[in-house]
Every structure is written in structure tokens, then in C-alpha cells.
Amino acid sequence: MVSPVMPSAGVLSPLGLEAVRLSPGFWGDRVALNREVIITHCQEWMERVGWIGNFRGVTPRRGREFSDSEIYKLLEAMAWSDHPALDELAATVARAQEEDGYLNTRWSGRRYTDFEWGHELYCYGHLIQAGVARLRAHGEDTLTEVVRRAADHVCARFMDTEETCGHPVVEAALVELYRVTGTERYLEMARRFVERRGRPALGEIQFHPAYFQDDLPVRRARVFRGHAVRALYLACGAVDVAVETGDTELLQAVRAQWERTVARRVHLTGGMGSHHSDEAFGEDFELPADRAYSETCAGIASIMLSHRLLLATGDARYADLAERTMYNVLATAVALDGRSFFYANPLQVRVPAEPCEGVNHGAEGGLRSPWFDVSCCPNNIARTLASLPAYLAAADGDALRIHHYTPGEIRHDGLALRIETDYPWSGTVTAHVVEGRAGRISLRVPPWAEGATLTYGGVAHPAEPGYATAEADWRPGDRIRLDLPVRPRWTFPDRRVDAVRGCAAVERGPLVYCAESAADEPPLARVTAEPLAPVERHVDGAVELDVPAALTPPEDDAWPYRSDPRATTGREIPLRLIPYHRWGNRGPVSMRVWLPLA
Amino acid sequence: MVSPVMPSAGVLSPLGLEAVRLSPGFWGDRVALNREVIITHCQEWMERVGWIGNFRGVTPRRGREFSDSEIYKLLEAMAWSDHPALDELAATVARAQEEDGYLNTRWSGRRYTDFEWGHELYCYGHLIQAGVARLRAHGEDTLTEVVRRAADHVCARFMDTEETCGHPVVEAALVELYRVTGTERYLEMARRFVERRGRPALGEIQFHPAYFQDDLPVRRARVFRGHAVRALYLACGAVDVAVETGDTELLQAVRAQWERTVARRVHLTGGMGSHHSDEAFGEDFELPADRAYSETCAGIASIMLSHRLLLATGDARYADLAERTMYNVLATAVALDGRSFFYANPLQVRVPAEPCEGVNHGAEGGLRSPWFDVSCCPNNIARTLASLPAYLAAADGDALRIHHYTPGEIRHDGLALRIETDYPWSGTVTAHVVEGRAGRISLRVPPWAEGATLTYGGVAHPAEPGYATAEADWRPGDRIRLDLPVRPRWTFPDRRVDAVRGCAAVERGPLVYCAESAADEPPLARVTAEPLAPVERHVDGAVELDVPAALTPPEDDAWPYRSDPRATTGREIPLRLIPYHRWGNRGPVSMRVWLPLA
Question: Where does the Non-reducing end beta-L-arabinofuranosidase-like GH127 middle domain start and stop, copy by copy (chains A, B) (predicted)?
């Protein structure tokens, strides 16, 4: 089966890429864009900036200490789709591997001298994930030979030490390599990496040890903390280890951390991370809209984690968060043309950004950029979109569960469904039975879908949030129709979210909406909204929303603090909201998700 | 005259340390604490962490690339107060100077290979400021010889290049060295450093060139931007150059930048800087309470700039901002015992911090720390408090202007006043004439002091914000009394300050107040306040305030966004506010300046 996560235990079993084929639609379009544009874009940029050249021994070496991992993420993306460029790129990588399996263009000759920042095991992690993809989608070849040698080197070097890497990811990768090869030492190595973290295993850095989750053993932590991508990759590895070793305490610990994080440390978009300085989760309820870091890679890592927890438990809440993150982080992070990307995904931009046509030295989220000095996000998008179909549905024995809705075909054990839907623009999802047998088919009902119905056999059944199940002896021509009410709705923050007090946002179905103002005209800082029913407008195949708003008069005080509050009345203006994932596709704009209320 | 800034032109002339002597009181106590505790604390720590050892050639070298500057700031502090430890420390520094005047323990042998981050000219700047202090307070000696040789080296090396330093400060230092020595090439060198910046003069870094103000020539910028300390030190140098060269365009440019910055980019405390990642000003109205960086050094740099602009123009607004910053940043940054310091000065702390007894690797502002990896702030506090009396009053010809009120004696040109006051706790300031002559005496009336009166000759005169002037033929025994109403007042933010929408703060006189909650009990996230008249409580020589407040019930939702806003009613609780500068002196606490309104 061709799937990035294949646990040997758990409530649900994954379906692979061979079982879920997408046709044109919200996600099908993006998966095609990835295959046709994004993967090549990434490869061309990594040639241009010299990161691929590093494997050819070009000097001086270019890129940051972790740039090898970017080539590996691209190899993973290529592996899922059996991309024709894979072989040559894999051969380039193979030539840089040393006799004993060591492979790193930055640290060769100075191996393992900086566990805090060296990223060597992190790079192996992404290399191994590429090899897992290749093994599952294709079989043994040059790349997988490189990967096995690297993994064996890691086990030989680290099995009996107390060391680990400043950046997790090797843990999840090793478990998956165990799953695909059956080699138990990979699982044991992953288990030890998870267990030794937080004893502590790493040295002092300029940040708190929570930055790389070395403040506490994984099973003793209560919430995700520190660098968001590190925290979420580590949690993925911990779940994988817990599932394979039957360690229910560890699984419960990660579930509890997820619960607390989701209750207090997640942006409305599903984005995670509030600090620019250390790319970290902030404190509980520290969720600034303007400085929301919400790194694209953290969104992807969160989707990876939710998927693992969903498979382990069958709990729809994990799919709910994954959906929110897919539509509002993953889909946002890539331009509609697939040639530029967000690193950070803020929920507010005050000042329209200058376009960046080349390498963005920062991570600021004012406009998408073609490439970054730290360009983890584009390749991460590429590998995620390449494997995305495997995230959309799963099996519960012979029963089928569909988590996410986009046009395509889903096959499972003699059952074949053709999914037709305009979701998320409409809430109607129709599953046409193409090949039938008796069994259960469940469709996820998101928590906002009050009044949803599931219609089959000519009867409409009320469908509560969670999974709605239809059971029958399915025959070709049968239809199951899910109707999710995707009316626009106003959403208010918990009062502890200081950053957006006095504001509300609009959501519609799984989509978060935002106001976008070209050249900041009207100035969004002077706009107030009234939380009355928005009016839907169908524009370019998307749904936009008009909300009642006012433009308050300009103020030009010499000091921004006053002895009396200003009135917030102004003249009525039309305010158009667009789906957040589409913002910034038309040049420099100001933007806000959270709208101050009058 | 012994004063850090001695312009040869401008509306006001400084008074020196010999003319302003403080007795016990708000600032006199802190100046004494500096002399008795802080200076020694800094010296001991810099021995302990090895930064002084670097000058002795101890290897490996310790500290960051700019650590030499810390010794120079301490030398400046010692110079103002003729500290007995100065000579030995100066001799240690002198031994590290090279034949041609070059002096840097980090870059010797690799001189001037990194203008963006090397900080070599920055270090000279602080060295020169120490030398200026020594020349004015004492006269020529080892230190001043080192300084002249270093300054001459700088002029020889940089007069005819286009280079400058990533971190400004040498500009203001060279102007002052010109002022004290009369050597015109120092002024010319300073002028060139100011002019060549932003052409651009520096290379690419990971931040926008605005980070080190190299995006625009100084005279073309419209607002302070980028790294706050860099921006403000550069502005000081630009004002100094403008004043000495009669460049009114340049002076007007800095004034306009100040105006716009003060209207849009300053925290209520006077603190400047909103980003942790680049220690920078944010966009207009980007003023987060929790992530307010408000670096202590930026506060000091702002006081230095306001002082220069005040001397140049006589405009009381500069003294108003300086006062706000002195009471709410400078006084906050140092513990009541003088042994720990804030680097960042946030306006909100959600989670009580763990105490740090040693070197703080970060800059987080949850509790004061004895020392930091980047320990610019303690030495900056030391040199500022050592010269603080020179900031408190000035001369306008034979007239005297008093900007800031604290007990002490002020002499000017045959006039001597003894100041008695309990300010800022009370608003009554009495100036007793000790030595008299005919002339004008002006006292500053802050903008919040509505209804102030100036009483002299037995008559009370209404005193408008700005300066209130008393003119008479003063005789010993005469008294001038200023009565400033220091009633507590609620303050509301401009609605564009997103971070504190729906909140208000309490001020009283020049002091900002805050709620401080030991172990976060009551939890400040659940407290709402009503903006009704606070009740004053006299505690430990300070005034605390009780405000009407409510504690809302705990919420434990699984997701922090809801379809309806929560009610904000709760049970009434007493809420004590303390002066912001006193927070965090009693162990770990949560804290907030901006209180959510019910």
C-alpha cells in the first residue's frame, strides 16, 4: 500500500494512493498543481541556490546546515508520484554517502559535533521518509539502498548512547522504515530517541530547553511547547512508537497534550506557533493575529499528527482539526499558480508587503515568495500534496470512512465510490457506488455542520457531528448524499485571547474568511464590522461574503493613548470577505481575519 | 561642565552634575543605589563571565562580539562618579590597544571584516563616550589617551571610505568628543557616518536593511524603524551633527520621525520596540502588551534622544516623553535592590516566570535577572543613572528650567534652589531659594496635569502644560510651589492598537500602573475591570490603587473560538494596582498593565 503512515495497530487502517484517486476539484487541482508545477519549481530553485550542488561536492558549500533535508523532502514528493527526475537526483545523493552510511554535506569530517543545531539526524529523518515513500510506491532502488545504509549507520552509532538531535523527525521516520521493512532495530532506535529526550539529552542554547522539547520527557509533558515544528514532529514519532509498542501511556500523553494545545494554543486557521523569535508556541492564549507565526511546516506537521491520532483512535476531532489546517494553512501557503509560498501565515497584515521575486531572507508573511533562505516550507508542501489522497479516507475493517471531501474515486475491499462535490463551496457531497458489496460507509460531519443530513436509500437521516454511517448491501448506481450546511457564521474568540479581544471572524464550512484591501484602501485599521448575516457572492468559482461594516474617521493624535475612548461610529461601507486561503494572490494588500466590532 | 551632552547651539544649555545634586528621593535613591550597588554588580559579573579577562588576553575569548562595549559603558558610569575602580579597569583596557589605536578583543587580526555584525565602531562609540565622561569629570588620563588614539584611528581609517557600522553609536560619541576637545575631524567623521548610512552602506543580512537603518538616508526617513536601539542611537548622532553643523533640515527630519514614532510606535510606558525576533519597532500601532520588547536600552536611548531634542528646541514634549520613559522603563528595569535587571519590559506577563539567579540566556521579561548573555542593559542603566542629574534641569540663558522633580539642589549662575518633593507620589514640588538673584525660573507642567498651579510671591497662577514660569528678584527664603494634580486616571488606547482593544490602563502622574498577581492567583486572564475612580492606598512609601473588578468564571472549552461571545460578568473582587516600575520585586507573578473592561 502506498501511504505515508501505515500503523500495525489502531482503530483505523489507512488507504493508500492507489485506493484514492482525485479528479478536478479543490484538492485534486492542488495535487495536480504539485505534480505539474511545484515539484519542478522546488528542484529548479534548489539547483539555483546550490543545495543540490552540495551533493556534487561543489565548493563552497551553499545553504544552511539543514539544507540536505530539503533535497530529501523533494525526493519524498517525487517518490509518491514516481516522478521521472527522481533517479538522477537520488544518484546525486548516493554519491555523497560515505562508506559507513554517513551522509551529510555540511558536517562530513566534523560528524556529530553539534547535536543542538547540527540537524544531522533531522536530515536522516527526511531521507528515511523519502526512502519509505520509494519502497512503498516503487520498491528497492538506489535511493532505498542509500536509506537503509543511512538508517543502519544511525542505529550503529546511536543505539547505545544518550544522544539525540536538536530537531526531531528521525523518530517517526524510523518507525515507518520499520513498518515497511520489518527490521525491528529501527523501531527500537526510534523508541530510544523518543525516550531519551528531556532527560535532558541536549546542551544549553540561547532558548529554553523547551525550544527543542528537552525540558521534559515526552510522556511527562502536558502541552506542546517550544519550536512548533519540532514539537509536532516529535509528537508524531511518539504516537508511532506508542502504537507499535502498545505503549498506551505514551499515546494517552500525546493525546492529552494535543487536547490542551488545541484548546489554548491554536489559531483559528488551525495554524500553530505564535513567536517569530524562536518559531515557537507561545503561552496559553498567546495567539496574536499580526505576529501569528503559524509556520506552514507546523501546519503540515499538525496534519501529520492529527492523521496518526485519527488512525490510532478513530476520533473525528483529529480529522476536524486536520481539515481546518488543510484548508486554512496548507491551501493558504501556496499561491494559486504554485510558484510562491508563505513561510509564516499571519492572520493580519497591516502594511502591504513589497513583492519578493527571489530568495526571501526572512519568513514574514506579507506576500508569498518563490524561495527562502530557510526553505523548508515549499518542499514540505510538495511532499504533503503528493501524498495527500492517502489522508482523505481510511478503513475500519471492511467498513469505509471518508474524512475529507473532494471529487475523486475511493476503493476499498471490493467497494468503489465516485465522490462528486463542490465542497467547500457547497456542502453537498454525493458518493456514487461504482462497485458494490454489503458494508458500512461513514462520512465525517464537522462540528459546525448543525442540521446535516445523510441521505441513502431515499431516506434522509439526521447526521450529528462525528461520523454519519450508512449501512447497506451497496449496488452500483446507489448513492449516498451528505448535506452539510455551509452557511457563513460569525466566530468569537475566548476572552483570554488578548490579541483579538473585541473582534469576530467569519467562517463558512471549513473555511476561515478575511478582509483583503489592495494598497490598504480602505484602510483596514479603520474598519469595524457588525456581526450580522453575511451575503454570499459567487466569484471565480469561490464564495465571497459581504458583511456590514463602517469606516471610522481618520485620527491623527500625537499620542495613541487618551483619557476617553473614541467613538467607533463611521460611515457605512461594503466589506468583502474572501476565503483566507486565497488572500495575497493579487499583489500587495493589507489583510485581517479578525474584524473589530463596532 | 560635567554633562553627557553639551551642544554648542540650541535653545537650552545643559546643567552639569556639579550643578544638580540629588538628596534622598525617587531619583536620588536610585543614583545612590547605582553608586553603591549597581556599578560594582556589573564589574563583578563582567569579571565572572570573562569579558574583562578578554582585555588581559585570557583565552579562549568569552562573550559576544560586542562585549568590549560593556566594559566601556561601565567605564563611563565610573567616570561620571569618579569611581575608585576606574583607573585599574582603564589600564586593563589600555594594554589591549594596538600601536595604531585599534582596540577590539574580538576582531584583532581580522579587523573590519564584518561591518554588518562586527560592532567594532559600535565598541569605539561606547569607548569614546567613556572618554568624554572622563575628560569632563576629571581630565586627561590613561583612559582619555586610549580614547583619543582610538578616535584618531577611526578617523584615519574611515574618513574617506563609504563604510559604516551595523550598530550606530559612534556618531553621537564622536560629536561629543569634538565638543570636549574642539578637534573638528571628529565632528566631520560623525557627519560622514550619519550621511553615508542608507545609501546603502552595508551588505545583506537576514533582516530587512531597515534593521540597521540602512534602507534610507537619515534625512529621508519618516519614522524610527528597525532595531530600536540602533534607530535611537543613530537619531541621537544625527541631532548632534545637525546641531553642530547648523543642519536644520536634518534636525527637522529627526523631529518629524520622533513625532510620527511617538504617535504610533510607543508603548504606554514610553518603551519602544515590539519585536523579539529583531528587537525592532513594529509597524504603526503594532504594540503588543505581552510581547512588548521595550528593551531597557531602547528606553535609555529614547531618553538620550529626547534630552538632545529638548536642548535643541526647548519643547516640553521631549521632556514629557523622557519623564514617562524614566519612570516606567528606566526605573522598572532595575530591581529595588539593584542586583537584577529587565532586558525586555513587557506590559503583560501571563505565566509567572522561573527565577534566574545566573546568566539569563534570553531577554524574556518575566522576572529580572542578575546578568544576560547579551548584557547591554545593566551597564547602560549604570552609566545613565550616573549621569542622570544632568538630565533634570537646563538653562535658557540666565533663566533656569526644571524638567524633572526629585529632591536635591540645583545651581545656575548665582541662583541656588533646594527642591523638596515627594513626587511622583504627591504632585507638590517646592523650590526653596537658597541663593538668589533676579531672573526667570520655569517648571515643566506635564500634559496630564490639568488644573496645575504655580504659586510664588504668595499668589497661585494657573499653570498650563508646557513650562510655567515664575519671574522675580529671588531672595533666600523665597519659595516657588508647583502643584500638579496626580489623581489616578483611566487611559484608553487608540483603536488601531489591536493588541489592547477593549482594555484600559490606569496612570497616576507620570506613573503607569499594573495588576500583579502572585502565582497568578487570582488569574489575571479572568479579571475584568470597570473604569471607575480608583481608591488610593499608601503602602511602603508608594501609592497603590484599588479598582473595581470582577473575576469571571473559569472556562474550559476544547476549542477557544465560539459561535457566541461569552458573557463577561463575574463576581466582584478587589483588584490592587501597583506602580509598573515596582512589579516583579516580590517573586514570580503574572502582570498586566492593560486591563480588559467588563
Answer: 400-485
CATH number of A394-483: 2.60.40
Pair B129, B121: CB distance under 8 Å: no
The pLDDT confidence band at residue B531, using thresholds 50, 70 and 90, is very high
pLDDT band per the 50, 70, 90 thresholds, residue B555:
confident
**pLDDT tens, A144-181?**
999 999 999 999 999 999 999 999 999 999 999 999 99
Amino acid at B390: A
- Calculate the CA dihedral of residues A117, A120, A121, A125 and round it to 10 degrees: 110
Q: What is the CATH number of domain A13-391?
A: 1.50.10
CB contact under 8 A, A564 and B492: yes
Task: Give the C-alpha separation, B171 to B173, whole Å.
Answer: 5
Q: Which residue of A has its CA nearest to B374?
A: A206
For residue B42, which amino acid is it?
C
Q: Do B505 and A566 touch (CB under 8 A)?
A: no
What does the block give as the cell for A482?
Answer: 451528505
DSSP secondary structure string for all residues of B348-374? EESSPPPP--SEESS---SS-BSEESS
Q: 3-class SS at A550? A: strand
Please judge whether A207 and B362 are an interchain contact, meaning their C-beta atoms are less than 8 angstroms apart. yes
Mind listing the pLDDT tens digit for each residue in A13-71? Answer: 999 999 999 999 999 999 999 999 999 999 999 999 999 999 999 999 999 999 999 99
Q: How far apart are CA A493 and CA A501, in angstroms?
A: 7
Q: Give the contacts of B271 (CB within 8 A, at least 6 positions apart).
A: B292, B293, B294, B295, B298, B299, B325, B328, B329, B345, B347
Cell of B347: 506590559
Task: Name the 3-class secondary structure at A58.
Answer: coil
If 0-12 CB within 10 Å is exposed, 13-18 middle and 19+ buried, where does residue B587 land?
exposed
d(CA A213, CA A238): 12
C-alpha cell at B327: 519612570
* Cβ neighbours for B248, distance < 8 A, ≥ 6 positions apart: B242
Taking residues B30-36, report their average pLDDT: 98
Residue B181: count other Cβ atoms within 10 Å of its Cβ: 16
| CA closest to A598 among chain B residues | B495
- Check CB contact under 8 Å for A596 and B501: yes
C-alpha cell at A450: 448543525
pLDDT band at A234 (very low <50, low <70, confident <90, very high): very high
- State how far residue A66 is from chain B, nearest Cα, in angstroms: 17
What band does B364 get if pLDDT is binned at 50, 70 and 90? Answer: confident
Overall pTM > 0.80: yes
B567 touches chain A (CB under 8 A): no
CA distance B492 to B505: 7
DSSP secondary structure string for all residues of A424-493 = TTS-EEEEEEEE--EEEEEEEE-TT-TT-EEEETTEEEE--SEEEEEEEE--TT-EEEEE----EEEEEE
Residue B541 touches chain A, beta carbons under 8 Å:
no
CB nearest to B495's CB, from A259, A317, A596: A596
Strands (E), B146-219: none
Report the C-alpha gap between B393 and B563 in whole angstroms.
Answer: 57
Instruction: List all residues of chain B from 298 to 317 with a beta carbon under 8 Å from chain A.
Output: 317
The pLDDT mean for chain B works out to 97
Domain layout of chain A by residue ranges? 13-391, 394-483, 497-596
The per-residue pLDDT for range B298-322, each reduced to its tens digit, is: 999 999 999 999 999 999 999 999 9
Averaged pLDDT, A228-255:
98
Sheet strands (E) in A257-355:
348-349
Q: Answer left, alpha or beta for residue B361, where phi above 0 means left and psi between -120 and 50 means alpha.
A: alpha
